[in-house]
Design a protein that fits this description.
Length: about 475
Amino acid sequence: MIPFRRLAAALLATSGLLAASAIDAARAETIRVAVGTQDTTINCATGGLLIRELKLLEKFLPRDGRYKDVTYDIQWRNFTSGAPLTNEMVAGKLDLGAMADFPGSLNGAAFAKAGRRSLFISVLSGSVRGSGNGVVVPTASPVQSFADLKGKTISVPFASTAHGLLLRAVKAQGWDPERDVTIITQAPEVAGSALKANKIEAHADFVPFAELFPWRGIARKIYDGSQADAPTFHGALADAAYAERYPEIVTAYLRAAVEADRLIAAEPETYSELIERVTGIEAEVAYLFHGPLGLQTRDLTWKPEYRQALKTSIETLKLLKKADGDIDVDRFVDDRFIRAASAQAGIDYAARLSDYAQSPLSAPDAAGRPIADVSRVAELWVRGEGKVRPYASPEAALAALADLEKAGGSARVVYAQDRNSGIKLFAAQAWYVRDRERRLSAFLLKGDAEDFARAHGGEVIDFAAARAGEARLTAR
C-alpha cells in the first residue's frame, strides 16, 4: 500500500505535468497571418509583393515570449483593386491588406457598417501633391489638357482613388459631373483595349496605369494628379481586433515593409525587374515610381497631408453616398505599429515625418558633370546594363543616347523630370523647350511648355525634334 504522503506527492507531480502540457499546448497554437496584396498596384510593393517574394515576413515574425512555440499560417491573396480586398477583410478572411487612400476609406466604412473596426497602420508610398493617379487619352486624340474634356466620356474604375481624383478635377473646372462630362465605370484591363481601339475619349486610373498605357504606346497622359494638388497615398490596413490581439505580429509585418523599402531604395533596378517578373508590368514603369526622384515617394510616415487625404476621401464617399457617416480619422489612423517597427529598424520616425524630399539621387552624373538642378535631371537605362545612368540635363542624356546608338547600342528607356512639378516622365512622352543656349527643359503638358517658352524664351518641340537636334550636334 502506497503511503498517503507519497501518493499526494505523485498526484501533485502529475497535475503539474498536466498544467505544463496545457501551457505548452497553448504556446503551440497556430496563428494565421493572412495578407491581401495588390501586386499590379506597384506602389503597394513594399507592403505585399516584395515582402512575399523575399520572404521578409518570415524573417521578422516574433519567435519568443508568447510566440515561442507558435506555428504561423502565412497566407497571401492578390487582388487587382481595393474593393474585393476589403470584402475579404470584412468577411474575416484577411488580417492585413494594402490599398490607396480612397479604397482604404471604403474599408473603414465597410468595417463600421459591419459593427467592427479597421486601422490604417502605415503609409507605403505617396505624394503630398497628388501625383500617381492620372488621366490618359488615345494616342491620336487632339486633347492636350483636362480642360479639353468638357462634353466627353471619361471612364474610371468606380470606387477607386482615381475616381476621387476625377471628381475633384471636374469640380476644379467648375463643371457639373452629371451634365458637363459623362463618367462611366471601366476596369483598367478593359480600358487598355478601349483606348487602343479609340472606343473611349479618356480614362482616369490609379498607379501604374496612367504611365503603363503611355509606355505601351496606346495612350498619352494629359493630366497628372499633382495638378489637383490633392495628397494621395497607398498604405497598409489591419483588422483592429487582430491588431489588438497580436500587436507584435502587426509590427513585424511593418518591420518587413521597412526592410522592403530599404532594399528597393538601394537597388531600384533590381527590384523593378522582380516586379516585372511577378506582375508583367515592365521594369521601366516600376522604376519611374521607385527610382530616385520617382513619381511618388516611398514614405512610411503619417504626414498631415496623408491624414488630410483620408478626410478628403471620406467627404467624397459621402458625396457618392458610399458612407453613412463620418469616420474619425484620428481614430482610424494608428501609427503605434509603424513607430515600433521604425524603432526596431533604427529609424528616427520623427525625422522621417518632417522629411518631404523625393527619393534622393545620390549617384554622380554619368558624364562627370555635377548635378546642381534636379528639375533638369535626365536618366538613360541602357539595354544590357544593370544600373540606370543619371545625367545633369536632358541634352546631356540625349547626346549620350546618340553616341550609344552610333556605337551600336540602344536604350531601354529615357527619363526626364518635369521642370515645373519635378515628377519623373518618360522622355519620349514629354514636351520640351529649347532655349537660346540650346538647353532643354521637359514638361508633361504642351501648355506648360508653351507658357515657359513665352516667359523665358525658346521654342517648344517634341521628343523626336529634341533627339534629332542633339544627334546633329554630336555628329559634328
